[in-house]
Amino acid sequence: MKMDIRVERTQAPKEKPGKGADLPFGHVFTDHMFIMDYDSENGWHDARIVPFGPIELHPGSTILHYGAGAFEGMKAYRKEDGSCQLFRPEQNAKRMERSIDRLCLPHLDADTILDLVERFVAFEQDWVPSDFGTSLYIRPYEFGCDEPIGLHGIQKAKFMIITCPVGNYYKEGLKPVKIAIEEHDVRAVRGGTGDCKVGGNYAASNRAEAVAEENGFTQVLWLDGVNQKYIEEVGSMNVMFKVNGEIITPMLTGSVLPGITRKSSIEYLRSKGYTVTERLITAEEIVEAVKNGTLEEAWGTGTAAVCGLSLRLAHRLGRQKELPQRRRRHLRLHRHHELLCGLQSSYFVP
Ligand code: COI
């Protein structure tokens, strides 16, 4: 579906962050946003780029009560020649189509999502920052806006895109952060929405993350919802470990998000000759690998936080005890990170 887009330019353009500017994740928004409405009579209509600002919602809107909303996170990079490029956006668009269908939101096909993202980013491209490791974070999202508060099929919705120039997600950058193994809450269950990008997965993780923070940890290591035994993700990222020379990562069981950075890292690491295995991984096995010194590295992969972390694992299984960590392990991860950023932005060919 090729939408006509009406454009209303801002009369008050903001100053764009210059070279070397501090870009805390998600704080700075570009001048415009994209909005398109859906209702069952007219289908998708009134696609428009308008000045960035608050939107009006009926207090009964489905999204406010039942969390009927799906989103994506993707990035545009400034290349050395000054042009911009998106990193594998067709994969985000496909995943978004799947998330929308999982929640029975009004359908939008991947080609339309991709086309709208490309056109909106082209419109805002002056906002794509150029420092190494920075990018324009792109957040497309769709949500239900039906006014009656009964639970029913969704007849009204909005699809929007907002964009933010960003640097590192975590203030620690690539330095090791303390991670607690979460034993009580789970972020998702098989058959639920863990393999889709929907707000509820993230809302469900708030409590554990708050408790972890109160106890001096930066994030939690999520275990599966059935046995609370197998590692699924870390914080809002997929997770990888290097044990005895082999890279292992949780297999996609249905409650793990099929991350595009995860897939790209696996392909990239394999192309560099690493053995990468996707399988069930128990928390106990990683704790044991920390204790016996075979855990060489651990890191998270996400779009917002690209290969962001090297983990200082702490075992919370009732004991809140920090496990010994070898010094300076994150340096090698740093190299992976540079190579992956290079791949995404074509700053250099690895
Ligand atoms: C992303 O990595 O793009 C996400 O959507 C995670 C979010 C917590 C920023």
Structural write-up:
This protein has 350 residues and is of the alpha+beta class. Helices cover 24% and strands 27% of the residues. It has eight helices and 17 strands. The protein has helices at 62-66, 89-102, 110-123, 199-203, 206-214, 260-271, 283-291, 330-345; strands at residues 6-7, 32-39, 43-51, 69-71, 74-78, 84-86, 135-144, 156-166, 176-181, 219-223, 231-234, 238-243, 246-250, 276-279, 295-301, 310-315, 321-322. Strands 1, 2, 3, 4, 5, 6, 7 and 8 form an eight-stranded mixed beta sheet that branches. A five-stranded mixed beta sheet has the order 11-10-9-16-17, sandwiched between helices. Strands 14-13-12-15 form a four-stranded mixed beta sheet. A hairpin with a 5-residue loop joins β16 and β17 (321-322). α2 crosses α3 (110-123). The longest helix is centred in the C-terminal third of the chain and has 16 residues, at 330-345. The chain is globular. Residues 327-331 and 346-350 have low confidence and may be disordered. It binds 2-OXO-4-methylpentanoic acid (COI). 2-OXO-4-methylpentanoic acid (COI) binds next to loops.
Which compounds are bound in this model? 2-OXO-4-methylpentanoic acid
What gap, in angstroms, lies between the N and C termini?
37 Å
Query: From the alpha-carbon coordinates, what is the Rg to the nearest angstrom?
Result: 21 Å
- Main sheet? 8 strands, mixed
Mean pLDDT: 88
Oligomer: single chain
N-to-C order of helices and strands: EEEHEEEHHEEEHHEEEEHEHEEEH
As a percent range, the share of strand residues is 25-35%
Overall form: globular
Portion of residues within helices: 10-25%
Question: Got a strand count?
Answer: 17
Stretches where pLDDT is under 50 for at least 5 consecutive residues are 327-331, 346-350
The DSSP helix count reads: 8
Protein structure class: alpha+beta
